[in-house]
Design a protein that fits this description.
Elements: E1 5-6, E2 22-25, E3 32-35, E4 50-54, E5 59-60, E6 62-67, E7 72-77, E8 86-91, E9 102-103, E10 107-113
Parallel strand pairs: 1-9, 2-10
Antiparallel strand pairs: 3-7, 4-5, 4-8, 6-7, 8-10
Amino acid sequence: MASSYLEIDRKNTDSNVFIHENIRYETTRFTWKVKFNTALDPRTVNSTNMFVTTLNQSPVHTSIIYNSVENMIEITPTGEYNPNEPYILNITKNVKSVSGKHLKHAVQIQFKIK
């Protein structure tokens, strides 16, 4: 039976639940690359549905690029991340495929820049 939801392509396909991870990087200009299992509706690839915030929910200005050939989005800050400040990458359930499927679960990944 085909799923009625859009999925983010991930290495561990046995997991049905997204794991929220604490990740630490050593660059102040880190770009998130998120691969999906199907083509996205470009109208839903935007800063309302995909964004970065600080832990206290202050928005971080980012640029979002959608690569329709690889079904991948890239989210890059327009400035630099502050070292040792935790951030959260947010992808809402409002992201849809071209066939109208949406994400089953919102994704939040906490990260910190050294």
